[in-house]
Write a structure and sequence with these properties.
Elements: H1 2-8, E1 11-16, E2 23-25, E3 31-33, H2 35-41, E4 50-54, H3 58-71, E5 79-82, H4 86-98, E6 104-110, H5 119-123, E7 130-136, H6 138-145, H7 154-164, H8 168-175, E8 176-183, E9 186-193, H9 197-209, E10 215-216, E11 220-223, E12 229-237, H10 240-254, E13 260-261
Parallel strand pairs: 1-4, 1-6, 4-5, 6-7, 11-13
Antiparallel strand pairs: 2-3, 7-12, 8-9, 10-12, 11-12
Helix pairs in contact: 6-9
C-alpha cells in the first residue's frame, strides 16, 4: 500500500477498531507492547498520516490516549482515540472516505474478542480504498451459538443474523441437516449439526467478505492449548498485491495453517 501511496500522492490512514489500553499482559505478568504502539513506531518506508484508535471501555481509551500522546508527542496531532463502539466508527470512517477523505488509503485492523462487529458496518467499506485485517470468532463465537440440536434461542439467532448479514432461513440449512426417521409412531424430523461447523463458518465468512472485496486471503488459524480452533484471521482488499502479501505471511508459518495457541 505504501509504495502506491507515494506514487499517487495518497494519504495513509490507520484504523484500529479494538485498540485496548495499548499494552497486553502476558501469562508471566509481563507487559507486551500492543499494536497501537507498534504501528506508531513504523516510519519506514513511510509512516501513516493519520491514526484512529477506537476503544469502547472508557478507562482503556483514556489510558491509551495518554500513553500515545506522551510517547509519540511529535505525532500527537495525528493521533485520535475514540471512546466509542467500533461499528459506529467503521461507519464514520466510510463517510469520511466518501467525502473529504477521498485521497486517503486505509488499513483497518479489526480484532474483536467476540461477535461485536456487525455485517452492516463492514458493508459500508465496500468500494472504499480500505485493506482490512479482521479476526473472526468462528470457534468461540459462531460455533457456540449453533446448538447441536438446532434449538437456538431468538436472541442468539438474531445475533447470528446481525453478525453474518444473513437471514435464519439462509443460515440454518448451511449448518444443519434435516432428515426424516420412520418409527412405530410415524415420521420424526431430525436436525443434525454439521460435524465441521467451525470450518464451514470460516468458509462462509470468507464468501461473505468476497461480496465486499475483490480479494480475500486464506485464513490465519488461531487455536487454544487443546488444539481447538478459536478464530480465523482474514485479510481482505480490492488490491491483489495486498492479499498476495498476506497469503505469503500466512504460508510462511505453517503452509497456510498457523498453529498459534490462545488460552
Amino acid at each position: 500500500m505504501k509504495k502506491y501511496a507515494e506514487q499517487y500522492n495518497w494519504q495513509l490512514l490507520y484504523f484500529d477498531g479494538f485498540a485496548g489500553s495499548g499494552e497486553i499482559i502476558g501469562e508471566d505478568e509481563n507487559s507486551i507492547v500492543g499494536a497501537a504502539k507498534r504501528i506508531l513506531e513504523i516510519d519506514q518506508p513511510r509512516a501513516f498520516d493519520l491514526y484512529y484508535f477506537v476503544e469502547k471501555e472508557k478507562d482503556f481509551a483514556e489510558s491509551l490516549k495518554k500513553t500515545l500522546h506522551q510517547t509519540f508527542s511529535t505525532k500527537k496531532n495525528l493521533i485520535h482515540v475514540a471512546n466509542n463502539d467500533c461499528n459506529e466508527k467503521i461507519k464514520s470512517m466510510s463517510r469520511f472516505l466518501s467525502g473529504n477523505g477521498k485521497k486517503y488509503k486505509s488499513l483497518a485492523y479489526i480484532d474483536p474478542y467476540g461477535m461485536q462487529v456487525n455485517w452492516e458496518s463492514l458493508q459500508t467499506l465496500k468500494e472504499h480504498s480500505v485493506d482490512v485485517w479482521i479476526l473472526v470468532p468462528t470457534g468461540i463465537g459462531l460455533n457456540r451459538l449453533l446448538k447441536n440440536d438446532g434449538e437456538i434461542s431468538e436472541a442468539w439467532m438474531t445475533k447470528l443474523e446481525v453478525f453474518l448479514g444473513m437471514t435464519r432461513e439462509e443460515i440454518l440449512p448451511y449448518f444443519y441437516q434435516e432428515s426424516t426417521i420412520y418409527t412405530l409412531f410415524g415420521e420424526v424430523k431430525q436436525i443434525k449439526k454439521e460435524n465441521n461447523a467451525v470450518e464451514k463458518a470460516a468458509k462462509l465468512y470468507e464468501e461473505r467478505l468476497n461480496k465486499l472485496f475483490k480479494f480475500v486471503s486464506k485464513p490465519y488459524v488461531l487455536k487454544n492449548k487443546n488444539n481447538s480452533i478459536m478464530f480465523h484471521f482474514f485479510m481482505a482488499s480490492d488490491t491483489r498485491v495486498a492479499v498476495n502479501i498476506a497469503n505469503s505471511i500466512i504460508k510462511k508459518f505453517n503452509n497456510g495453517t498457523i498453529q498459534y495457541r490462545m488460552d
